[in-house]
């Protein structure tokens, strides 16, 4: 029973968003795993004034994009998304949020933590 409690405690500590200052750039992360979402949010926001909203599927991510509208600066599409999902999300962002930049690890650059952080920080 103790392991389940520890597991639940771990889930409660996972980060799903980080809110920066009023001047912070905004990133919407299309993720797939709560654990990986937590890792990426911590990775890209460390030492940077950034607001990051982490989502776990395409539908949730699209809802967040529509909610935030032109406040989105970067859309990070995680590696678990299929080519057709990436195209669909990218096309929607390009057509509806022309100022937003896309970050697509495993597509535009190698999929690694270092490359993801480098790409996001470079686009700020």
The tally of helices reads: 5
Strand order of the largest sheet: 1-3-2-4-5
Characterize the overall form. globular
Q: How many strand segments?
A: 5
CATH topology: Rossmann fold
Structure description:
The protein is α/β, with parallel strands linked by helices and 124 residues long. Helix 4 links the parallel strand 4 and strand 5. It starts with a helix and ends with a helix. The chain is built from five helices and five strands, in the order αββαβαβαβα. The chain has helices at residues 2-13, 34-45, 58-68, 83-96, 113-122, and strands at 17-18, 25-30, 50-55, 74-77, 101-103. The protein has a single domain, classed as 3-Layer(aba) Sandwich (Rossmann fold). Strands 1-3-2-4-5 form a five-stranded mixed β-sheet, sandwiched between helices.
List the topology elements.
Layout: H1 2-13, E1 17-18, E2 25-30, H2 34-45, E3 50-55, H3 58-68, E4 74-77, H4 83-96, E5 101-103, H5 113-122
Parallel strand pairs: 2-3, 2-4, 4-5
Antiparallel strand pairs: 1-3
């Amino acid at each position: 029973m103790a392991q389940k409690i520890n597991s639940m405690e771990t889930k409660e500590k996972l980060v799903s968003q980080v809110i920066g200052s009023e001047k912070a750039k905004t990133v919407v992360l299309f993720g797939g795993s709560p654990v990986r979402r937590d890792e990426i949010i911590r990775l890209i926001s460390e030492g940077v004034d950034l607001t990051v909203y982490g989502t776990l599927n395409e539908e949730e991510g699209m809802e967040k994009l529509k909610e935030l509208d032109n406040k989105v600066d970067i859309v990070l599409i995680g590696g678990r998304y299929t080519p057709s999902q990436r195209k669909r999300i990218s096309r929607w962002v390009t057509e509806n949020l022309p100022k937003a930049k896309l970050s697509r690890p495993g597509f535009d650059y190698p999929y690694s933590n270092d490359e993801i952080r480098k790409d996001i920080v470079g686009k700020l």
